[in-house]
Structures are given as C-alpha cells and as structure tokens.
Write a structure and sequence with these properties.
Blueprint (H helix, E strand, L loop, with lengths): L5 E5 L4 H12 L4 E6 L11 H4 L9 E2 L2 H5 L4 E4 L3 H13 L3 E4 L6 H5 L2 H4 L3 E4 L5 H16 L5 E8 L9 H14 L3 H4 E3 L13 E7 L5 E9 L2 E9 L3 H14 L5 E3 L1 H5 L2
Parallel strand pairs: 1-2, 1-4, 2-3, 4-5, 5-6, 6-12, 7-9, 8-9
Antiparallel strand pairs: 7-10, 10-11
Helix pairs in contact: 1-10, 7-8
The structure holds nicotinamide-adenine-dinucleotide.
Length: 269
C-alpha cells in the first residue's frame, strides 16, 4: 500500500478537485499524498475526507504546496492559471509529474511553464477525456479533406460557473481544424461576435460559447457549406471522464523524461 505512487490534488474543494479525490480514493494503484486549497479557504487545516463530508482519510488540506507535494510522485492540478504557474515551479522542485487541467492560460503563461518542464514531466491538456482527444484527430482529418467552401464553427456549452471562453476544449478543436487546413489559428480565429460584425470572412474559424445551468461540457465542430453540413460532436455527461484521464496522465508520466506533453501523447493518438 505504502509503495503506491502518491498523488497530490490542488483545488481540492473545487468541482474537479472533488471528482479527482473520489477517483484517487477508488483507485488501487495510487494513494492520496496531499491536498491543497487556496490561502484563507475554510478547508485548510481540516482532514480532506471530513471536509468533503465523509470519513477522515489521514491527509490534511494545506495551503502550502511545498508540504503537499513533498511525498507526491504526481500533482493533479485543476485550478486557475496563476495558481498553476506557482504549482509548476514547486512540482518541478519536487521532481513530481505535473498534470495540468487548468484552462484559460494565455500564451505568455504557457511559455512560463518551460523552465519547470526542464526538470519534470508536465502533461497539459484543455480536455483530458479520450473522446475529445479522439475528436481533435477527427477534426484535423475532416478539415484537411475539405476546402474553404466549408465554414468551420466550434460551438461549446458549459455550466454557468465557468470563467473562461472559449473553453480550453473549443480552442483545442480550433487548433486541430487550423492544423488540418495548414493555417495558424491566431490568423483565422473569430470569437465573440456581437453587433454589426460584417459578413463572415472566408477561411475563418468561428467560436460560440453557451453558458447555462449544470452543463458538464458539449462541443460541436460544424463544417457548413452551401447545400450541406457536417457536425462532429462530443457530449460529456460526467466529470469523472476528466478525472480518469488526469490520473492516467499522472501514471503515464512517472517514467517519462522531463518535458511538456499532452493527452495525445498519453493516449498514443
Ligand atoms: P472550481 O472553481 O470548482 O475549482 C477550482 C478550485 O481551485 C477551487 O476550489 C479554488 O479554491 C481552487 N484554487 C484556486 N486558486 C488556488 C490556489 N492558489 N491554491 C489552491 N487552490 C486554488 O473549478 P472547476 O470546475 O473544478 O475547474 C477548474 C479548472 O479546470 C478550470 O480551469 C476548468 O476550465 C478546468 N477544467 C479542465 C478540464 C480538462 O479536462 N482539462 C475539465 C474540467 C475543468
């Protein structure tokens, strides 16, 4: 039991933090080694099991990642971009695999992960599910097969608590479509349409974000031409798919060389 790889979870009280806790506790190949919440959070200092409304598990929630990561071989992190940058440095010092599910990171923030990835494995993905990662490959193929007569639109829907748009997954799908077309997403990205926008520019990749209720995550990639449409769709109905993917990434990373990886590497897609 004690030889099992230890997993530290950040943002333990969050929607994904709680799902990760359950996934780690249900697993017989890893053990919980640490739990982090932000400074001032009421769970800090409490047993993670008790704070989550269950039986004590012998791990106390801390606001100090250095303490939480000390006995961890991997850190699973679904928090916020600023928090994630701090965790990357500390996970690298602990030589722990850092699995990053946090979305909404800017290109500058992503670039700041590079020093950490020289010392430890980082696996970062806007979506950790097998289905979505497969969908990125399909999107790339379809985009490569069709010309600009087909307008590409990525339509996503999430719960009303989500703070970033378009979703990390929508951007992954947009990147895949752009790659298939042989263009850079930054040059053709069209998000946040409102008002007199003018006609749609040929070759653009458009994004629409729907926010409401408790929607876990839905993504459509629409290829629309005169007279016909193709839609590729993924619907997530349970956050467990992201937690299972993240745990898989953590285990995969244990024997890999330092560097930055994504779920396509983990899943071998
Ligand atoms: P949430 O708001 O429910 O949880 C975030 C948690 O992080 C909160 O408990 C918050 O207190 C904690 N936190 C923030 N700053 C912290 C800090 N400095 N130290 C420690 N803890 C800190 O959000 P959520 O729905 O769980 O989503 C979290 C992130 O994961 C978002 O960016 C979301 O888009 C992303 N997400 C990614 C995937 C994926 O597959 N990659 C799937 C679902 C969600």
């Amino acid at each position: 039991m004690t030889d099992l790889p230890g997993i530290a979870i950040t943002g333990i009280s969050g929607r994904m933090g709680q799902m990760l806790l359950k996934t780690v506790q249900d697993s017989d190949v890893v053990k919980l080694a640490g739990a982090v919440e932000r400074e001032g959070h009421e769970w800090v200092g409490q047993d993670v099991g008790t704070a989550s409304g269950g039986a004590p598990v012998g791990v106390v929630v801390t606001d100090d990642p250095v303490v939480a990561f000390a006995n961890a071989q991997a850190v699973i992190d679904f928090t916020s971009p600023t928090a994630t940058l701090g965790f990357a440095e500390i996970a690298a010092q602990a030589r722990a695999v850092h699995v990053i599910g946090t979305t909404g990171m800017t290109d500058d923030e992503i670039a700041k992960l590079e020093p950490a990835s020289r010392h430890a494995v980082i696996v970062r993905a806007g979506n950790m599910s097998l289905g979505v990662n497969l969908l990125t490959q399909l999107t790339k193929k379809v985009a490569a097969a069709l010309d600009e007569d087909f307008d590409i639109e990525v339509i996503e829907a999430h719960h009303h608590h989500k703070v970033d748009a378009p979703s990390g997954t929508a951007l992954m799908l947009g990147e895949a479509a752009a790659e298939g077309r042989g263009v850079k997403l930054a040059d053709v990205r069209d998000s946040g349409r409102d008002g007199i926008t003018g006609a749609r520019k040929r070759g653009d990749i458009g994004f629409t974000a729907i926010r409401g209720g408790d929607i876990v995550g839905e993504h459509d990639v629409l290829f629309a031409a005169a007279g016909e449409r193709i839609t590729l769709r993924h619907v997530a109905t349970d956050r467990a798919i992201f937690a299972r993917g993240a745990l898989k990434a953590a285990l995969w990373g244990l024997d890999k060389k330092p560097g930055e990886y994504d779920m396509l590497d983990v899943l071998g897609l």
